[in-house]
């Protein structure tokens, strides 16, 4: 039972609570009426005033937004910054990253990213130290003492020493290794003086020897365990290469079922302990393409950030995208080499007429894009180049006179004839847009003076075989000279011999005067003296006309964004662009001005 007094007490409390609730509700109604409903009705009379304040507030906010946008350029700018992944598309195929065997544009590019060399070229194409700091040359010019850095580490953490340098060059000079660099190093003795000093001893003085020390160095502690004869097929070359370069190996992926659509994708990561400082890019990916159309298409769809290896710029395909273009001259030459041993070229007058009948300006106009004309076996940048001793100048009337005086008379078919033989020859060139345009111009201009020329365009693999065996009458091809004027390999008679290692004397040119000058020029260190020594060679070459020089080759590089740190002025080879890859930046963002 509940106590009656307690029950009464609860009832009083409940009634009191109900009364408080009722009073609170009444008070709320009164306040709502007084402060909201009555005032809302008054807004109608002051609506213009309210709208004015609202519009003023909106204008102030818009003004602040516009002002902040206008002031941003004064305090911030869009700038290239470090980081990100750079994807380069390149024409060709990948086979080998090992610098002892790397050949071709793809292999060479990968090799330079993964491996370092004793010396390399900067953006001005000047030789600078890489793994080495400097070198000394003995008084007789036969001993080069190279001083190495002591802060270099391989990608696996081992320290780089002179043992690696000695191992690299001894392996190259070992015929069992089958390195394409063998002929250049077989007569060079390499010895370690201490852990960071190496002596190179050459048989005779050679001024340009330092320029040869730009091939990649491989790790002795890794490859010494393998048989020299098996190095060419080692997994080190394409599965797990270990270098000292700015990027270290990550993965290799092969995609595509058919040969035409097959691609290799090589992914490299920035090496944290790189001796020149960590690369600006976090990751570098190279994608190979077998055809220019697929390469350009990938660029247009932005699957790659840049493309290398194009023979010409396809304006029709690239019309859909904005891009930056870099057209960089190379220290080489493209020319027509007359095989002087062939009957049609035995007569000097015929060779002179062929040179004089070509207006090289017309040839260059036929090529899409800017190129630099070449008119001598030396380039204008070379010590010894003499503008007074260039090839015979264009003079079609003189060319006709030379042929007439040599007994070549115009026949009924518009082709000159002598003793029943037509003045005709075949011209071999690589099958490319650039070569097609140039050979068509040459063919037409020679036809104008009664010379019949049959042009044969060959694939890259076929023309390599043709050149190696000298199976041509005339050859339009490029040669790589470099920054030194030593052109011994291309014009000395010994380099035409069938037993010569490379046989780069495509014209099979032979001149005792030229030979003596070339031999003397490559052993003299003084610039003025070298120029004097090369004069007889230039005079003989001009008179004998063993070739027609046309232009310097160029390297075409396209990118979506301007690449900070990429600004070469001239290069020796297309792969030399990778010498500065550790400085490249393509990622952009807004940052505060300094």
Sheet of most strands = 7 strands, mixed
Q: Please give the radius of gyration in angstroms.
A: 37 Å
- Mean pLDDT across all amino acids: 89
Total count of domains:
4
The CATH H-level homologous superfamily of the largest domain: Dipeptide-binding Protein, Domain 3
- Reported by name, the CATH topology of the largest domain is Dipeptide-binding Protein, domain 3
The first-level CATH class name of the largest domain = Alpha Beta
Q: Could you give the order of strands across the largest sheet?
A: 9-10-11-2-12-23-13
Termini separation = 88 Å
Name the structural class: alpha+beta
Give the uncertain stretches in residue-range form.
Answer: none
CATH architecture of the largest domain: Roll
Q: Assign an overall shape.
A: elongated
Estimate the strand proportion. Answer: 15-25%
What report would you give on this structure?
The protein is of the alpha+beta class and 594 residues long. The protein is 33% helix and 22% strand. Helix 9 (348-356) packs antiparallel against helix 11 (396-405). The longest helix has 40 residues, at 4-43.
Relevant terms:
594 residues, alpha+beta, D-Maltodextrin-Binding Protein, domain 2, Dipeptide-binding Protein, domain 1, 4 domains, seven-stranded mixed β-sheet, six-stranded mixed β-sheet, elongated
